[in-house]
Amino acid sequence: MSWHMKLCGLLLASAALTAGPAGIADPQAEGDHAAASQAAGAVRLRNIVKSKIKDPEILQTVRDWTHIQEGGAVLVEYTVHLLQDGDYKPLTEAELAAQRFQVGDQFLLTVQAQTTCYIYVINQGPTGTITCLLPDKEGQPPRLERGQKKVFPGGNDAFEFQEPAGDEKFFVVATAEPVADLDALASAVCQQDESLLTPQQKELKKKIVSEGVSVLKSLEQRQAALPSFVGELSQPNVEKFAAKTARTRGIKAPKQVVLREALPDGGTLGGTIDSEGPARYVAVLELKTGDKQ
To answer: Which of 36, 47, 127, 204 has the fewest CB atoms within 10 Å distance of its CB?
Structure first.
C-alpha cells in the first residue's frame, strides 16, 4: 500500500497511503478544540486533543531500583486514530493488531512526549520505500517537551489507504539525544527529486538510506534483548517486575529497561531507561490491509 503526500517539497508516491482532506487541524491545546472542530465540520477532535500524561513518579520508581540517574529515560505515547462515523477513534494496541484496513480508510497518527525527548517518525512501505515524517527537510528532529503532541500528517490532511494493497510500518523513535545516522537518513530522503540528482548523488543517497534502515533495525534488535516490563505502570507492578528480573537474570538491577503499557482507551505508552548512554525507544506500528484472517 502506498501513500501520496507532499513532504519536504517533494511529491513521494511510495505507498498506498495518501494525504487527503479530512478536515483535521493540528491542535496543541484544548483551546484549539472549538476552532478546529468548526473547521472540521462533521469530524470531531475530542479523541485527538485528549492528554494522558502519566505520573512522573512512575519513572522515579523504576529509577530507584535500577539506580539510574535523572535524564536516563524517554517515555512517549503513540496512537493510531481511525476515522469511523465522522470521528477519529483511538485504537487500542489489541484493536490495531486485529485491524485489517481497507481501501479508503483514513487515519491519523499522534505522538505525545511524556518526557522531554527528540522524536523521529519514519514510514516504510511494503516495497521498502522510506519516508520521514519527522525530522523535516532540515534533518533535525524536533525536541518535544513533556506533554507536547504532534499529529500526522498534520494540517487538514489524513492518511488514506489506496490501491494497491500492502502492509505499512511506522517507526516512532524517541531519544534523549539526536541520532546522527537517523538525521542523515531524513536528510537523504528529503533531498530533491531523483530525476535532478547526478548518478553519484543517487548512489550516495541509496547508501545513506540503507545505513539509516540498518540503524533502525539495530535499535529495534537491541531493544528486544533488554528486560521488558509490559503492563500497567504502577508502583506495585514495577516492584514485582524488579523482583522477578533479579531472580531470573541473577542481577540486582539491570542497566537498561524497556517499559510498555497498552492504554485502555487507545494507544500505547512506551519508553526506555538506560544507564549506559542516551536513552532510546523504538516503537514499530504495523498497519495490515485486506480481509481478516
So the answer is: 127
Closest CA to 152 of 280, 7, 53, 1: 7
| CA Rg value for the chain | 19
Distance between CA atoms of residues 19 and 133, nearest Å: 12
Higher-pLDDT residue of 35, 273:
273
> Which runs of consecutive H residues, i.e. helices, occur in 71-226?
93-98, 180-189, 199-224
Q: How far is CA 149 from CA 6, 110, 143, 220, in A?
A: 21, 7, 11, 23
Q: Convert the pLDDT of each residue in 80-135 to its tens digit.
A: 999 998 899 999 999 999 999 988 899 999 999 998 999 999 888 877 778 888 88
Give the closest residue to 108 by CA, choosing from 194, 229, 21, 12. 21
Q: What tens digit of pLDDT does each residue of 165-190 get?
A: 778 889 999 998 988 888 877 777 76
Say how far apart CA 254 and CA 90 lie, in whole Å: 34
Identify the pLDDT of residue 28: 41
Which residues, at least 6 apart from 222, have a Cβ–Cβ distance to it below 8 Å? Answer: none
**Distance between CA 233 and CA 199 in Å, rounded?**
51
Backbone angle region of 77, left / alpha / beta, with phi > 0 → left and psi within -120 to 50 → alpha? beta
Kind of pairing, strands 10-13 and 4-7?
A: antiparallel
What predicted TM-score, i.e. pTM, was given to this entire model? 0.78
Cell numbers standing for residue 194: 531523483
